[in-house]
Amino acid sequence: MGPDETSAMLALADRMLWVTMLVAAPVLLASLAVGLVVGVIQAATSVNEQTLTFVPKLAVTALVLVVLGGAMLTLIGDFTRDIFTTIATISR
Questions:
Q1: What is the pLDDT of residues 18-60, one digit of tens each?
Q2: For the chain, give me the number of helices (H) and strands (E)?
Q3: Distance between CA atoms of 16 and 10, rounded to whole angstroms?
Q4: Which whole number is the average pLDDT over 54-74?
Q5: Among candidate residues 18, 33, 22, the one with its CA nearest the CA of residue 63
Q6: Does 2 or 60 have the greater pLDDT score?
Q7: For residues 55 and 31, is the Cβ–Cβ distance under 8 A?
Q8: Distance in angstroms (rounded) separating the CA atoms of residues 1 and 26
Q9: 89 in helix, strand or coil?
Q10: Would the CA dihedral through 38, 21, 78, 81 be positive or negative?
Q11: What global pTM score does this model have?
Q12: Do residues 75 and 22 lie in contact, with contact meaning Cβ atoms separated by under 8 Å?
């Protein structure tokens, strides 16, 4: 593998990490925010019910996936297409 192929593979690895972050971040941040709000409410009211945190997190996660799911799939699809294009050019 020459220097051009190595740099192409490192560029793909770098982009892979960014795509992973961009796809996972909205769901994780929304779930974190809801968990924090529900945790503060539970601490203030002294209600320690496990399902009370699960249901709002599940609802917000579903909402984020409905709203941003198309963009996430487009991002993953574009990255996958770029991977196959890069592999085809490297293997020649």
A1: 999 999 999 999 999 999 999 999 889 888 887 888 999 999 9
A2: 2, 0
A3: 10
A4: 95
A5: 33
A6: 60
A7: no
A8: 37
A9: helix
A10: negative
A11: 0.80
A12: yes
Mean pLDDT within 63-83:
96
Looking at residue 71, what is its pLDDT? Answer: 96
User: Domain-by-domain residue ranges, the chain?
Assistant: 3-90
Q: Tokens 């020459």 map to which residue?
A: 2
Alpha-carbon distance values, 14 to 11, 55, 67, 80 (Å): 5, 35, 27, 14
67 Cβ neighbours under 8 A, 6+ residues apart: none
With 80 as the cut, is the pLDDT of residue 1 above it?
no
Query: Looking at residue 46, what DSSP letter applies?
Result: T
Rg (CA), the chain: 20
